[in-house]
Design brief:
Elements lengths: L1 H21 L2 E7 L6 H8 L8 E7 L3 H10 L4 E3 L2 H8 L31
């Protein structure tokens, strides 16, 4: 009887693990490679997002064109980029024209000083 109960418990654990995986919501994030992504990498490594039902897919952005197109075609849900990219594409001044008018918006900022204008007097 104990053996049967142990097998049943093991089977239920496997089924519960499969159910938990099935309930994961995929989240595609595109970001420019670099140290500014450290909080994202830590969250992924420590499974902070997985504990809340999110399966993270981090994609490196080769350039802002790929990032904007990924947002437009739905292959990317969140883009980590500088605010000037958001404004440029919203105003029709991005590197390339998009097939439709974008509805980009900025909802969080966490970095200060990574993009600086440095000039000589």
């Amino acid at each position: 009887m104990r053996k049967a109960a142990a097998w049943l418990a093991a089977l239920l654990a496997v089924v519960a693990a499969d159910a938990a995986q099935a309930q994961m919501t995929p989240l595609a994030v595109m970001t420019f490679p670099g140290g500014a992504n450290l909080p994202l990498w830590v969250a992924e490594r420590k499974e902070f997002l997985a504990r809340n039902g999110l399966s993270l897919n981090i994609q490196p952005a080769p350039n802002s064109v790929a990032l904007a197109r990924g947002l437009m075609n739905g292959s990317v849900e969140i883009a980590l980029t500088a605010f000037d990219n958001v404004v440029a594409y919203q105003e029709g001044q991005g590197e390339v024209a998009l097939d439709a008018a974008p509805d980009f918006f900025a909802f969080m900022a966490f970095s200060r000083g990574t993009l600086r204008l440095v000039v000589n007097p």
